[in-house]
């Protein structure tokens, strides 16, 4: 039987405002170099030439978190996935400015990259401010659903971490409910402060900044893969 959460379809915008000439040149020159190859094996050696730890960010937006993590840990390889072209331009700009050589990008669906990675190959997966799909009838589109989570669980190594941030109260409750029902993840929070405060090694994202500015609460969930 088909699980509705495994229906593979990308929702949301692929492009916003038209790219300026400099941005278009950045995409043309840098994206092919940094893109995850379309076919063939996908592991740390294929992407970075060695067996370094690998982390994936799903829906990196403009890439500020991805770039900050990559700059902080140059010996880790990062794969950022984002279908929105204008976001990809932002990430390319950060990568160029900071001279990062440990980031690869996929302009498209993160799940199609996760599927190609070897099982138990990731040390972290980030899902920061995923599209909330607040209407109940759209709940199956949420990334926090059994289909995507089964995939994330399969690709994380034991002791690896799944980080989820949201400022959406419905998504927060939904995620707690879904994640509490799983036996393959352990919520790492010991006190409320652990999910109300962003830890020092969790750089702020653009959506998060916007949410705070609008007076929203933000929740930071960290789960260990058992
Ligand atoms: C609300 S934005 C948050 C962006 C960023 N994480 C932040 O916190 O600023 C959600 C992002 O997820 C991306 N997204 C949606 N579905 C996706 C998918 N299947 N794979 C990768 N990214 C996806 C969207 O394009 C969008 O940029």
Present the secondary structure layout.
Elements: H1 21-34, H2 44-48, E1 54-58, H3 64-72, E2 77-81, H4 85-98, E3 103-106, H5 110-116, E4 122-128, H6 146-155, E5 156-166, H7 169-180, E6 185-187, H8 193-196, H9 206-213, E7 219-225
Parallel strand pairs: 1-2, 1-4, 2-3, 4-5
Antiparallel strand pairs: 5-7, 6-7
Helix pairs in contact: 1-4, 3-4
Question: Would you mind describing this structure in some detail?
Answer:
With 226 residues, the protein is an alpha/beta fold. It is 37% helix and 19% strand. It is built from nine helices and seven strands, in the order H-H-E-H-E-H-E-H-E-H-E-H-E-H-H-E. It has a seven-stranded mixed beta sheet with strand order 3-2-1-4-5-7-6, sandwiched between helices. Helix 3 runs parallel beside helix 4. It is globular and about 45 Å long. The structure holds S-adenosylmethionine (SAM). The site of S-adenosylmethionine has 22 residues, from helix 5 and helix 9.
The major beta sheet can be summarized as:
7 strands, mixed
Classify the secondary structure makeup into a structural class. alpha/beta
Helix percent reads 25-40%
The percentage of residues in β strands lies in 15-25%
Bound molecules: S-adenosylmethionine
Distance, first to last CA:
28 Å
Radius of gyration: 17 Å
Number of strands: 7
> What is the chain-wise order of helices and strands?
HHEHEHEHEHEHEHHE
